[in-house]
Amino acid sequence: MARQSAGHRRGRSALLGLGLLALTPFLAAQAQPVAAGKLAQVRILATGGTIAGVGTANSASYRSGNLTVAELIASLPGVETIASISAEQIANVGSANIDEAIWRKLLARVLAADADPDVSGIVITHGTDTMEETAFFLSLLVPASKPVVVVGAMRPATAVAADGPQNMLDAVRVAIAPAARGRGAMVVINDTIFAPLSVTKVDVHAMQAFAAPARGPIGHVLTPVPVFYSAATPRAPAFNLESAALPKVAIVHAYAGLRGDDVRAAAQGARGVIIAGVGAGNFSRNAGEAVKELTARGIPVVRTPRQGIGDIWRDDAVAGVGGEDALGTIAGRELTPAKARILLMLALQTPRSRGELQAIFDSLGTTSP
Ligand code: ASP
Predict the structure, then answer these.
(1) Is the domain of 213 the same as that of 270?
(2) Ligand 1 centroid to 263 CA: how many Å?
(3) The domain boundary residue, chosen from 228, 261, 285
(4) Are residues 253 and 221 in the same domain?
(5) Does residue 235 fall inside a structural domain?
(6) Segment 215-226, tens digit of pLDDT
(7) Which residue from 12, 22, 153, 306 lies 20 to 30 Å from 337 (Cα-Cα)?
(8) In-domain check, residue 238
């Protein structure tokens, strides 16, 4: 069956967006089945974001993380004919506030749902600002067996043409799709399915806010049954959360003539540093001196691009500053600075040599050899 036109879909969402505010919240913090039957069960874990945002008429302003998961589910027309839904409110925040504590709580509930034989797939509602980070974090810690679909929206639930209900329905469809099994964490937004490694937010306002610039999407949800463009490659989680608190990893944003002192200041108290470098992960000679001081002290420094797009591989002459070996740095491969931070935090739970860390970035920071 062909999907409705975008205009038609938006009109429908608008009506629902207005109607859902009158609904009474009906779910508690713990998972509760809200629809029984033989349909596949989807566990929805809500964390907030614009998808749960509420604004006022004639204003672009709204508050992220407002509606409850029950209210979000009530805005999904016909969801009860697609899947049996159970839900939990993990948090209700703008996603700039998603921190390690929320990640740990979310991970625990994802793993519980993953282990529950009654649950077919998991949907996580999330703010778009950091949903690529949460998806990447989960992709490293959750078995790539059941689908774990992170979904957001660019417009608040009260917008005339809210995109949240459509995106959530799409996420539920992906969560129960046979072709989605074996893939683990994914991002679904604006009809499109992305892999955590390659997805990034490329526009702060537009509906087409997400892209995987180097690799493209892994599928689309333009029909009731999502389409994937390649076979799933199931794999075991790369890491466990072994430490009570993840080691601190700082990010330094480079600019023309990056000052060495900026690098030293950011590295205070950090177990690792990510440089969001200019161009292909480059930085100034002054910054290079500071980087050498850090790596000589055993603090790993990973080079990434501040644009967040492109493969940073081992370089024998980092923009004339010195080769990777002279600097003692690690090439961050295809990871954005924020995702490189996540990978380094997880990797540094165990003491590891520079060579071991580079091997981790080579295997988990890209799917290319
Ligand atoms: N500021 C919002 C957030 O990330 C943006 C969004 O959800 O689209 O929570």
Answers:
(1) no
(2) 29
(3) 228
(4) no
(5) no
(6) 999 999 998 899
(7) 153
(8) no
Spatial neighbors of 360 by CB under 8 A, at least 6 apart, are: 343, 347, 352
Average pLDDT over residues 64-72: 95
Q: Which two tokens stand for residue 91?
A: 């948090």
Higher pLDDT: 314 or 52? It is 52
CATH number where 167 lies? 3.40.50.1170
Atom of ligand 1 nearest to the CA of 93: 9
**Residue 51 CA, ligand 1 centroid: distance in Å:** 8
Residues in the ligand 1 pocket, defined by CB under 6 Å: 49-50, 64, 94-95, 127-129, 152, 154
Active-site pick, 24, 47, 50, 329: 50
The residue whose C-alpha atom lies closest to atom 8 belonging to ligand 1 is 128
Lowest mean pLDDT among 254-258, 322-326, 355-359: 322-326
Lookup: tokens for 241: 């959360």
Domain check: are 10 and 137 in the same one? yes
**Over residues 123-151, mean pLDDT:** 97
What range does the domain containing 335 cover?
249-364
176-221 per-position pLDDT tens digit: 999 999 999 999 999 999 999 999 999 999 999 999 999 999 999 9
Ligand 1 midpoint to CA 226 (Å): 25
Dihedral angle sign, alpha carbons of residues 114, 115, 119, 125? negative
Based on the domain organization, do 158 and 295 belong to the same domain? no
CATH of the domain at 316: 3.40.50.40
Does residue 336 carry a catalytic annotation? no
The answer to whether residue 294 sits within a structural domain is: yes
pLDDT digits (tens, 9 = 90+) for 252-262: 999 999 999 99
pLDDT band at residue 316 using 50, 70 and 90 as cut-offs: confident
Q: How would you classify residue 60: left for phi > 0, otherwise alpha for psi between -120 and 50, otherwise beta?
A: alpha
Q: Residue 111 falls within a domain, yes or no?
A: yes
Of the three residues 228, 259, 280, the one that is the final residue of a domain is: 228
Q: What is the mean pLDDT of the chain?
A: 89
Give the contacts of 167 (CB within 8 A, at least 6 positions apart): 51, 151, 152, 153, 188, 189, 190
Residue of 47, 63, 64, 97 best suited for mutating to test ligand 1, as the one with most atoms within 8 Å of CB: 64
Q: Are residues 214 and 288 in the same domain?
A: no
Burial readout 109-129 (b: 16 or more C-beta within 10 A, e: otherwise):
bbbebbeeeebbbbbbbbbbb
Query: How many A from CA of 98 to the centre of ligand 1?
Result: 11
Count of domains in the chain?
A: 2
